[in-house]
Design a protein that fits this description.
alpha+beta; 3 domains; four-stranded antiparallel β-sheet; flat
Length: 218
Amino acid sequence: MTADELAEYQAFKQEQARRQAEERIQALRDNYANMAEAFIERSMKKLEPLSGKIRAMKSEVLEEASSLQALKAELLEIDGKQMPKSHTFTNKKGTKRVTIGVYETDAYDDTVEEGIAIVKEYIESLASDTKSQQLVKMVLNLLQRTQNGALKASRVVRLHKLADESGDPRFLEGVKIIENAYKPAISRTYIRIEKREIDENGGIVHDWEALPLGMTES
């Protein structure tokens, strides 16, 4: 075999190996795609009906809870709007309980901008001594917005405390406007069920344990 023939043969073998590698990778990709497709179909058949059942059961539980909450408000002689955001119902034996509540996200109406402007106007008017600079830094940190563009309610509480400590009416006015602008938005309603084991003497054998209601909790 001449040198040219050897080089040609080696080039042929390299090309053959490259094609075989590409074909193998493509076969693996096709196999993965087919397996994923079958997995998706099987999972949807199992979980889609379950999702519908959970939604329907949740609606039934919330409807019953709403009636209980209305009766509770009547018994306590308070406005339903003044009721707490969560309600826990416990059985007579103290072994089972259901909690209905809502998750809220911090939100404010447009008047919050006026309050923020007043607060910033106040801190900008402070003297430049070390103590004032520290207060300015604290206030600006508390006025920082979240990724959703809203102020955190917990920070506004701390801001109010600083305003009280300062005793400045303008500072207090700005914070009050911010507080009045607070209009929390309900993101979703949750249901939590728990159980515990109590012996015949009332002693706790196993304390409250939450039963998983979501796929991520099981």
